[in-house]
Design a protein that fits this description.
One of its GO terms (cellular component) is nucleolus. This protein is mainly β. It has a single domain, classed as Thrombin, subunit H (Beta Barrel), CATH 2.40.10. The chain is built from one helix and seven strands. The model has no long low-confidence stretch (mean pLDDT 88).
Length: 85
């Protein structure tokens, strides 16, 4: 699995930050390509990509229940993503 995460969908462009959801079910990555990518925490398979920032995404944080993901970008914006949608 480690090789897939390093060379697979999370590595399409340089990644700034990677974090597991509180329950370990999801992996989120913040990227220079202005996106947040969500992958399966067990298999490492890409699930979806969130777009909306106009600058590189530098940081992320999960809500305690793992339903929401907050991302912060160089564009000075914060976005809240509901991973259930």
């Amino acid at each position: 699995m480690t090789e897939d995460l390093l060379t697979g969908p999370l590595r399409s462009l340089l990644v700034n930050h990677v974090c597991f959801s509180p329950d370990g079910q999801w992996i989120a990555s913040a990227s220079f390509d202005k996106s947040v990518k969500l992958s399966n925490g067990t298999a490492g398979e890409s699930i979806t990509t969130f777009h909306g920032h106009v600058g590189p995404v530098y940081q992320m944080s999960w809500s305690a229940d793992g339903r929401l993901l907050l991302s912060g970008s160089k564009d000075s914006s914060l976005k809240v993503w509901d991973i259930r949608t």
